[in-house]
Amino acid sequence: MLIYTKAGGIIMSETNHEEFLLVCEDCGTPFFTAEEKAFYESLGYVMPKRCKPCRDRVKKVPFWEDPGSAMPYTEEMERIYNTICDDWSIEAKKEDVAYFYNVEEVNALLDGKKSFLIGRKGSGKTSIAQYLCQVPDCNLFAEKLSFKNFPFNRLYSLENTSEYTTPNQYISIWKYLIYSYVCREMIQNESVDADIRDKLSKLYGGVSSGNLKNMIGEWTNKAFGIELFGSGLSYERERNTDNLDWIDKIEILESIILDYCGDAKYFVVFDELDEDYRDFPTKEEETRYMCMLTSLFKAVQDIRSIFDDSGKQVYPVVFLRSDIYERITDSDKNKWRESLINMEWDTARLQNMLKHRLNVLFGEEHEEFVEAWHKLFEPRKVKMGNRASREMDIYDYIERSTEMRPRDFIRYVKECAFLAKQEKQGRITPKLVKDADDNFSEYLKNETVDELFARLPEVNEILGLLSTIRKQSFSFAIFEKEYNELLERSDLPKRDVKEVLLLLFDAGVIGNQPSMATQALFKFAKNTPRFNFKETMIIHRGLYRALQIF
Questions:
Q1: Which of 164, 376, 445, 524 could join 168 in a cystine, given CB atoms 3.0 to 4.6 angstroms apart?
Q2: What is the pLDDT of residue 62?
Q3: Beta strands per DSSP E along 411-453
Q4: In Å, what is the CA distance from 416 to each residue of 85, 148, 181, 431, 436?
Q5: How many Å is the Cα radius of gyration of the chain?
Q6: Are 452 and 459 in contact (CB under 8 A)?
């Protein structure tokens, strides 16, 4: 056994006292003497990174087939693959909170600096909303209102047209609901006066927090809270309490919260408001939905203004899809900018997110992304093109198939882990990454259908049209021709062809390929471009396999 000691940059063998200057990056054996260094320098050679045996091995075996970079399949790696397949999820509700990557946007919300977060489907909105309600802080209280499967007609029926005009007719009901939820949270705060908590508990403590439909139904009942809204908390009114309107009830709740909430933080989180977003059959229904959202944004701004001025920490927070937010038209919209976060991802942020997840997965703390990444993926590159003449880093290969969303990366890694477990690989190989492309492409297509179906019910037929064109890029004229032919042979609703293309662009299905640019321009790019109908259009490569475009 050879034993080495190191001093002053010199590595010495204690067996034969030979001195070495370098350590082989493959096998870790010290090599390269001072004489060899002088010889290399005299000929202008680059200093080697491997010892001679390793250099000889690399010469005999192509790097992409080099078994030296492979790792054995172990029980630990089987556990890792199982954890990825079973515990990693594109749905935030199903994941361990340890996997949550704390982006700076979270602190902006927790500190009350921002009130609105918008982003594409899959950009992490629900994950952040979920985290806000799980923060381990005894002086923070939060509840999330999920409107998934919620009957919006119940909200629409509560409009206040006597006090407000369109699009503000729902401000009252939103403020009333927010204040009611804050009162529910005050029940949990032991620093609030016990008598106040007892009275609030009689009103707000009876319905499960998960049953939003029943809670809203009970709280908006005319007979609800007569004692509270009368003299029960010394907020007397001269008028008959049976006839209190929304404004009166809101003022009473507002006074109770201002007087008794203390110095705690109260969050009311709105999520999954896109449940009623669809291809509206009438303009009236679309207007009603957009008014409901506009009123929510205005209600939040009103509440923040009132409680910020009083030094109280009441923070309603709204999460909304960016494509829906873009359709809100209101004279106050520009004022919301200072309170709004646009959730965007780039390579650096995505790699930090993945590094965090991999560190949790392996129970290690790697500072650099590449160190954590290569715990799971081989460092070898993916071979592409004719006779594998081109190559690309595994991360870059995966990224170009995604729409730069966390859930896309999670899904791709899950597909790779499943294949690696099947083939008992010690790490995920370039071949497995390529093999995972098929299933990932189907996932991306399904995500596209889910995102577009509400606005474009015939989305499957439109994607089929792209398969018919069977080209990675095409012109406006080609798409228009194929679209008109599709309409002639089917009973699909006729839409303006530009409207269809814009919907595909908004969903990341297509982008522009400018003649002078080296990269395609997609809507999900950080500097969001406008769609140009005159430029060549290109299909996102993540959809190639699912649409049979090669």
A1: 164
A2: 44
A3: none
A4: 9, 31, 43, 10, 6
A5: 30
A6: yes
How many angstroms separate the CA atoms of 203 and 417, rounded? 50
Q: How far apart are CA 356 and CA 344, in angstroms?
A: 18
* One-letter identity of residue 548: Q
- Domains of the chain: total: 4
Tell me: do 243 and 290 sit in the same domain: yes
Q: How far is CA 164 from CA 159, 168, 298, 526, in A?
A: 9, 6, 12, 38
Q: Are 379 and 333 in a shared domain?
A: no
What SS3 state is found at 464?
Answer: helix
81 is a domain residue = no
d(CA 127, CA 101): 9
At 384 the three-state DSSP class reads strand
Provide DSSP, 488-517: HTS-PPP--HHHHHHHHHHTTSEEEE-TT-
Domain boundary among 342, 357, 391: 342
Kindly state whether residues 266 and 151 are assigned to the same domain: yes
Mean pLDDT of 456-478: 95
Residue 152 or 187, more confident: 187
Residue range of the domain that includes 484: 453-543
Q: Tell if the pTM clears 0.85, that is, is over it.
A: no
Q: By the 8 A CB rule, do 543 and 445 touch? A: yes
- Among 442, 475, 500, identify where a domain stops: 442
212 and 333 share one domain: yes
Per-residue pLDDT tens over the stretch 486-524? 999 999 999 999 999 999 999 999 999 988 767 789 988
CA distance 31 to 54: 11
CB atoms within 10 A of CB 324: 17
